[in-house]
Structure to design on (120 residues):
C-alpha cells in the first residue's frame, strides 16, 4: 500500500492580468439641429408644431405609423381642419382608423396651414 501523500495543494496565484481596454466612445450627436434645409419657413413652422403637439401619438416621421395614431403624411388642409379641430372628417373621406381616440386639438387652430404645408 503506498499511501503516497500528494497533498501538496499548490495554489497557483495567477496574477490577474485584466486586459481592460478603454475604448473611447465618441458619440457625435450631430443629428440635431441640422438638415431639413429644404423646408419652407411655413413648413418648418408646421414641423415644429407637429413635433410638439402631435408626436405623443403620431410618429415623428409623419409617413410612419406612430405609437397610437396612424401615418398622417399627405393630410390635406381640409382633413386637418376637420380632424384636428373638430374630431370629424371631410365629407366622403375614408378614415385610416375607425376609432376616435384622438381628441380635437384646438390649440393648433392657427397652425393648420403650416401643418398642411409640412405634411403635404
Ligand atoms: C392622443 C393621441 C393623438 C394626438 C395628440 C394626435 N393624434 Fe392624430 N390621431 C390619433 C389617432 C388614434 C388617430 C386615428 C383616428 C382616431 O382614433 O381618432 C388619429 C388620426 C389623425 C388624422 C386622420 C388620419 C386619417 O387619414 O385617417 C390626422 C390628419 C391626424 N390624426 C393629425 C394629427 C395632428 C396634426 C396632430 C397634432 C396637432 C394630432 N393628430 C395629434 C391620435 C392622436
Amino acid at each position: 500500500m503506498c499511501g503516497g501523500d500528494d497533498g501538496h495543494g499548490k495554489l497557483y496565484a495567477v496574477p490577474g492580468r485584466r486586459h481592460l481596454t478603454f475604448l473611447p466612445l465618441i458619440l457625435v450627436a450631430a443629428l440635431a439641429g441640422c438638415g431639413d434645409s429644404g423646408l419652407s419657413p411655413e413648413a418648418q413652422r408646421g414641423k415644429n408644431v407637429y413635433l410638439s403637439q402631435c408626436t405623443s401619438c403620431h410618429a415623428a416621421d409623419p409617413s410612419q405609423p406612430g405609437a397610437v395614431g396612424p401615418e398622417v403624411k399627405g393630410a390635406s388642409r381640409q382633413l386637418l381642419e376637420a380632424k384636428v379641430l373638430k374630431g370629424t372628417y371631410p365629407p366622403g373621406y375614408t378614415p385610416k382608423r375607425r376609432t376616435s381616440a384622438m381628441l380635437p386639438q384646438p390649440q393648433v387652430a392657427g397652425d393648420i396651414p403650416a401643418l398642411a404645408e409640412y405634411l403635404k
Remarks:
- Residues 20 and 88 are 61 Å apart (CA to CA).
- The pocket of heme C is lined by residues 53-54, 56-58, 68-70, 72, 75, 79-80, 83-84, 95-97, 99-102, 105, 108, 115 (CB under 6 Å).
